[in-house]
Amino acid sequence: MRKMAHIETVRELLPIPDADQILMAKVLDWELVVRKGEFKEGDKCVYIEIDSLLPENNPNFAFMEPRKYRVKTIRLRGQISQGLALPITILPEEKQNLEPGEDVSEILNIIKYEPPIHPHLRGKVKGLFPSFLRKTDEERIQNCGWLLEVYRGVEVYLSEKLDGSSMTTYIRNGEFGVCSRNLELKREDEDKLRNAFWICADAHNIEQRLRSLNMNIALQGELIGPNIQKNRLRLTELKCLFYNVFNIDESKYFDFVDFVRIIRELGLETVPIITETMELDHTPKELITMAVGNSTLYQGGFREGLVFRAKQELIVPRHGRFSFKAINPEYLLKYGE
Question: Within the chain, which residues score under 70 in pLDDT?
């Protein structure tokens, strides 16, 4: 579960050109704007991530009313600001001694903003996301920059992050299933009731393709196209581009080479692979700069960002699978409605 508000330390404070009342603060590897005099370097703060929705009945957040209590990426005096750093005193007194990293989302009643679900994505629920599969939701590099120090030199591949809806299909003991990010969905017979996940799965014969492998296996990808996240890639039909192949019996992902081979043998498409091999020797800021650019699927628009995954599967203590994402700040400024 993503921590939307957590205790952190103000690592650095830097001036912003032509700005007398504000400073750039670095919290973890996030850059954001704070009022001058509000913090000293080394102070603890409550860091609230972008995509947070703040409670309207808390007077500490009254200044967010013009922004409808949503925390988004903004630009102030030329400085991109991602998130909020607020004094530790917004917490109840007995919670003000919590250590950096502690989640205070529930204490402050801060939740993740979820955009309305388009009817095209709804369907009859078969059950929760199956326990024999794994959900994918890469951490942003600003929250896990320590990986770049501890695992410097690891070989990764880079893929384009697509702004769609997570889709998983699987075959297990002869049963075929289709899932959204959080739910397994029933197949509907009437066209007017069918949801985009099943429409896409049937249109691309994914069930038959998976059965041809004669193993318990799952494919995970991004559903994109009409009525999906405002279809900013201007696609004319639904498609799923895949980024994971998961061996259900062994409960592990296939390495990069086998992932690409299986998707291609099935006659399906991977997400756009930007770089097949890169040795990690970068700062978080360098990777975020790398994420800025246009989509390979729609040259007229920004890409959402990049996903970095180890070429050979690697499990990291306190983190899980070695993967993370760098989101294009220009994309967030343009589309973070």
Answer: 119-120, 189-193, 337
**How far, in whole angstroms, is CA 114 from its chain's centroid?**
13
For tokens 């903004």, name the residue: 74
pLDDT at 337: 59
| Confidence (pLDDT) at 262 | 98
User: Are 172 and 203 part of one and the same domain?
Assistant: yes
CB 13 within 8 A of CB 41: yes
Query: 58 in helix, strand or coil?
Result: coil
DSSP secondary structure string for all residues of 109-176: T-EE--PPPPGGG---EEEESPTTS----PPBGGG-THHHHHTTT-EEEEEEEPSSEEEEEEEETTEE
Task: For tokens 């929250």, name the residue.
Answer: 143
Look at residues 112, 131, 153 and tell me which one is the last residue of a structural domain: 112
Ramachandran region of residue 266, left (φ > 0), alpha (ψ -120 to 50) or beta? alpha
| Number of CB atoms found within 10 A of residue 32's CB | 24
How high is the pLDDT of residue 300?
A: 78
Query: What pLDDT was estimated at residue 188?
Result: 78
| Domain at 224, CATH number | 3.30.470.30
What pLDDT does residue 199 have?
Answer: 92
Q: To which residue do tokens 């801060």 refer?
A: 110
The owner of tokens 């990690």 is: 280
Tokens describing residue 173 = 């003991």
pLDDT on residue 21 = 95
Same domain, 133 and 190: yes
Nearest by Cα to 7 from 73, 88, 81: 88
Instruction: Return the percent helix, strand and coil in the chain, to nearest 5.
Output: 20, 35, 45
Which stretches within the chain are classed as H helix? Answer: 105-108, 146-150, 196-203, 206-211, 256-265, 284-291, 329-335
